């Protein structure tokens, strides 16, 4: 058996799970008829887009079992928390919210509670749940998501907590049902796991090793989405630049991007996340040549100091990062750049932090995702020592935000008076008469409009800008 065959879950196993889905559906249908009550499920996502994509698979399986979805926990028969382990506050939120379900469960004993996702891949977390959160009925990890029907079936019949966690390098699973959020843009995972072991990061421990989906499977998923009317596809992976290295017929990410760009009817392609150590000239060239690939790049730099980058095991320098950015700006002049930054990595001095500010000043990102370092159990950085206090870290963090906010506003001001193409997603959450969508560069645009525009690409003339969004009016020539 080849290495690929070993990691690809055989279709027979997926079919077994589908049989269980059908069995649960029959039971649910019977119950619904008998009681006149619907079956309702809540799925809450705490993590990144990959985590959200997993939640969409969970919802797909649940939909096929006859569940409807709600956000009201009080009316749910089933609650699933899909957890994230990347920072401590994400974990604390989950523990707090699971604790709060105890009362609800006491009032509604038939309600089932499940925990899954990245936190569950950590032994100490599962131990704590077994000990302190006995009202939880199911615990399953990232590698066993596809066996959720089996886990649920057991939990429906047993009083004990059903646990299904595998400590493995991970699998590739095709053909799990999916129920997506929205109908204009979709996420498509192209690979799973991460091999980089940045010294602060838990992801490689909870998501396993890098493994790429077969290009044929990716292309057929995207073709299906386009035929259903989706206009924008975001290709997902922890490090998309190393796509394809493990395929039997190796191909790289740039080749995949070209192939996806050729799919008939696709309008917009985005991807995330890219690692600076793996971004190639070929990829930059491909981005600039493919007309459906959006002018947007998320390229986390994490820190500006070379000493800190080395401690982080990032494998590039500040100079190398700036060189890549220059190449990208030259090849794609209207590119929007975004990045992730960690403030207060152990050992980072105030002087090191000045290098981070220097990168932000030089690059002028459109926006930044900024985090204060959070120690993660089992990672090398957990053992490293701080040299500045938390108050200093927080002051640095604030300095970074202030600098970036000014830059974001300045970048947005360049859009004033311009006409941009917006993919309309729906009505704004805060104003029912205002539609919202995004430009190719990923900027949020709000404008007055009507139902007929939802899901379409509409030209908007920008007449007002804020730090986080743009607003404008529909250009008459659209119609
Ligand atoms: N694979 C992606 C994203 C990983 S998680 C990448 O490499 O960019 C998203 C972001 O969370 C990271 O880019 C990093 O900025 C942040 N992050 C990860 N671990 C963290 C930690 N222990 N403390 C604070 N921020 C962290
Ligand atoms: Fe974490 Fe680094 Fe992998 Fe990103 S590349 S998921 S930061 S280990
Ligand atoms: Fe994503 Fe959080 Fe897991 S960032 S990969 S859900 S640890």
CATH topology of the largest domain: Rossmann fold
Q: So what's the overall shape? A: globular
**SS content category:** alpha/beta
Q: Determine the mean pLDDT.
A: 96
Estimate the strand proportion: 15-25%
Biggest sheet: strands, sense, closure?
A: 6 strands, parallel
Alpha carbon gap, first and last residue: 58 Å
Total of domains: 4
Largest sheet: spatial strand order = 2-1-3-4-5-6
Q: So, the CATH homologous superfamily of the largest domain?
A: Methylthiotransferase, N-terminal domain
Question: In percent, how helical is the residue content?
Answer: 25-40%
| Alpha plus pi helix count | 14
Uncertain spans, ≥5 residues at pLDDT below 50? Answer: none
User: In CATH terms, what is the architecture of the largest domain?
Assistant: 3-Layer(aba) Sandwich
The radius of gyration is 23 Å
Name every ligand kind in the structure. Answer: S-adenosyl-L-homocysteine, iron/sulfur cluster, FE3-S4 cluster
Tally the beta strands. Answer: 19
**In CATH's first tier, which class of the largest domain applies?**
Alpha Beta
């Amino acid at each position: 058996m080849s290495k690929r065959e070993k990691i690809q879950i055989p279709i027979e196993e997926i079919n077994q799970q589908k049989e269980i889905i059908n069995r649960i559906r029959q039971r649910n249908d019977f119950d619904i008829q008998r009681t006149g009550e619907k079956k309702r499920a809540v799925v809450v996502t705490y993590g990144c887009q990959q985590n959200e994509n997993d939640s969409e698979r969970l919802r797909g399986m649940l939909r096929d079992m006859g569940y409807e979805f709600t956000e009201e926990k009080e009316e749910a028969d089933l609650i699933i928390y899909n957890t994230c382990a990347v920072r401590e506050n994400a974990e604390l939120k989950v523990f707090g919210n699971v604790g709060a379900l105890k009362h609800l469960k006491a009032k509604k004993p038939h309600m089932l509670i499940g925990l899954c996702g990245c936190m569950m891949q950590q032994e100490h977390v599962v131990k704590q749940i077994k000990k302190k959160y006995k009202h939880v009925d199911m615990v399953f990890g990232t590698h066993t998501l596809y066996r959720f029907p089996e886990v649920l079936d057991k939990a429906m019949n047993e009083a004990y907590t059903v646990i299904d966690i595998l400590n493995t390098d991970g699998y590739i699973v095709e053909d799990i049902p999916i129920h997506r959020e929205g109908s204009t843009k979709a996420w498509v995972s192209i690979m799973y796991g991460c091999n980089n072991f940045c010294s602060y990061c838990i992801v490689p421990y909870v998501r396993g090793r890098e493994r790429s989906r077969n290009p044929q499977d990716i292309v057929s998923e995207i073709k299906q989405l386009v035929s259903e009317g989706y206009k924008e596809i975001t290709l997902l992976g922890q490090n998309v630049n190393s796509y394809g290295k493990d395929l039997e017929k190796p191909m790289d990410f740039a080749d995949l991007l070209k192939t996806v760009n050729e799919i008939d009817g696709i309008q917009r392609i985005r991807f995330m996340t890219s690692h600076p150590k793996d971004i190639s000239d070929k990829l930059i060239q491909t981005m600039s040549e493919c007309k459906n690939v959006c002018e947007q790049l998320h390229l986390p730099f994490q820190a500006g100091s070379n000493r800190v980058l080395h401690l982080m095991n990032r494998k590039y320098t500040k100079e190398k990062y700036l060189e890549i950015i220059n190449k990208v700006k030259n090849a794609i002049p209207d590119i929007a750049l975004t990045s992730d930054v960690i403030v207060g990595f152990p050992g980072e001095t105030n002087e090191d932090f000045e290098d981070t500010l220097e990168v932000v000043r030089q690059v002028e990102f459109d926006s930044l995702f900024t985090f204060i370092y959070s120690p993660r159990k089992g990672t090398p950085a957990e053992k490293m020592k701080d040299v500045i206090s938390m108050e200093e870290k927080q002051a640095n963090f604030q300095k970074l935000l202030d600098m970036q906010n000014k830059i974001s506003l300045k970048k947005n001001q360049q859009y004033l008076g311009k006409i941009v193409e917006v993919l309309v997603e729906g009505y704004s959450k805060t104003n029912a008469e205002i539609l919202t969508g995004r430009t190719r560069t990923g900027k949020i645009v709000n404008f007055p409009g009507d139902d007929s525009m939802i899901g379409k690409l509409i030209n908007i003339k920008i007449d007002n800008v804020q730090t986080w969004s743009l607003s404008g009016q529909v250009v008459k020539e659209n119609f």
